[in-house]
Amino acid sequence: MPRINCGVENCAYNHGKYCCASVVRVDGKSADITETTYCNTFLDGMGYTNAQEYNMQNSTELDAILCRVDTCAYYKDEHCTLQEIEISSLTRAEDKTQTDCLSFERRNY
């Protein structure tokens, strides 16, 4: 099963630096650097305080890492081929676009 290491401390799905969402989607169509990717699953913990508790009770494992970053070396058929990725942010994220997929690696064409 895939695993997401999460450094976005205020995300509602972050449970001890581990993502407890059942499906995670990374976006950043035509991204060329890490900072142009983002976690589309991000939810600010201030507005969704029950998300973590709900997902920890109803989903023990991440089902899939969906990916729409077709320029990434790990992109295949709208999924990430890595079994473990890292999502983080430089500051407190107020929006999903303030998160980054640190596992992004630009595909060599």
Q: What distinguishing features does this structure have?
A:
10 strands, three-stranded mixed β-sheet, mainly beta, globular, 109 residues, 7% helix, 1 helix
Main sheet properties: 3 strands, mixed
Q: Total number of β-strand segments?
A: 10
Low-pLDDT residue intervals, each spanning 5 or more residues: none
**Strand content bin:** 25-35%
Can you walk me through this structure?
It is a single chain. The chain is mainly beta and 109 residues long. It has one domain. The chain is 7% helix and 28% strand. The chain has one helix spanning 51-58; strands spanning 3-6, 14-15, 18-19, 23-27, 38-39, 64-67, 75-76, 79-80, 84-88, 100-101. A hairpin with a 2-residue loop joins strand 2 (14-15) and strand 3 (18-19). The longest helix has 8 residues, at 51-58. The radius of gyration is 13 Å and the shape is globular. The protein starts with a strand and ends in an 8-residue tail after the last strand.
Short description:
With 109 residues, the protein is mainly beta.
Topology of this structure?
Layout lengths: L2 E4 L7 E2 L2 E2 L3 E5 L10 E2 L11 H8 L5 E4 L7 E2 L2 E2 L3 E5 L11 E2 L8
Parallel strand pairs: 1-9, 4-6
Antiparallel strand pairs: 2-3, 4-5, 7-8, 9-10
